[in-house]
């Protein structure tokens, strides 16, 4: 491909067979002619003066001309507009940032100054596609400088770091509304987990960001909110979080799955006294591996599997005693870990296998955490708490863009829903939607 750009004005119009005068070329005809010419002559498609920029300019200016025609009520040079009190008053040049780079357009004006263009509004310097692209890149963890460099390299668009910051700051209003939105009256399961992020507040230190995710009565996943902890994640802290959820309309939770967070069971009992607190089995296994040598991981996992797949609590106790006999001498810390968590580990053993699948299979919350960790890791650390929450919020809003994950969950939900209905009779009412 050459560096030769094509000018729209160089495309020769087709003469009319009747008048011998050049016939007007429609936008569709122009596009077809330019694309064919680009193919045959190797014309520049992207970059300054490229085909895509000029097509964007043509489309925008055509749309603006249509807007002022609708505003005035008559076509350009139409005698009907004479002495009607308002008329066209030339144009003003304006450069807007688009997905294909900066494009200079001529914006029409009227003598009364009442024309308000919509396709390129007054004081607007970016079209929406650029904002969406910046938000998408930010959600993937790119820093403001990296986003600016990416847009300049790929699209030839000069976007300052301050502009990127301005665009991403727009999400904060939406975040506040999302964090305070009304909730359903009851959820079958809540998952509570924490992600550690580095925040530079005088000095860089780890701070927990807590995520609460629900499985709805319809079988879909819903992130109920995110909170920045200060290290005091005791009963008082969790009481504040759960009270906030209750004030937003959440009256009952059947089961709450967590990773043994300090003070959480006591807070749950205060807000939702009938809720069963269940230790996350996946987290329990993962924490066990911290105390085992790498070459023993598979053996330890195999020895613990009969414990969490046991048909009853009594059977699980027997299997755990067998594990203790085999591995207790070598890894006493693993035995203590499971013993300390036993009261919150065993509740799910008394439920149907369909309920166990929902509770033990934490793929839902794990996939959410993986996306959050990816964004956080790419950023390194954050200047303050608000910046960390903004990054995580954008990562959450970009989850499951195709909707395939939501569809899979809904398709597998009927059997667990029936099991929950039987186990928690009278507390769960499915949606009619």
From TrEMBL:
Region (Disordered): 1-24, 70-92
NCBIfam families per the UniProt record, alphabetical: transpos_IS256
Residue stretches of biased makeup (Basic and acidic residues): 70-80
PANTHER family according to UniProt: MUTATOR FAMILY TRANSPOSASE, TRANSPOSASE FOR INSERTION SEQUENCE ELEMENT IS1081
Short name of one Pfam family: Transposase_mut
Record keywords, A-Z: DNA recombination, DNA-binding, Transposable element, Transposition
Molecular-function annotations in GO: DNA binding; transposase activity
Superkingdom of source: Bacteria
GO biological process, one term: DNA transposition
Family statement: Belongs to the transposase mutator family.
Job of this protein: Required for the transposition of the insertion element.
UniProt-recorded name of the protein: Mutator family transposase
Polar residues bias: start-end ranges: 83-92
Keyword DNA-binding applies: yes
Database matches in InterPro entries: Transposase_mutator
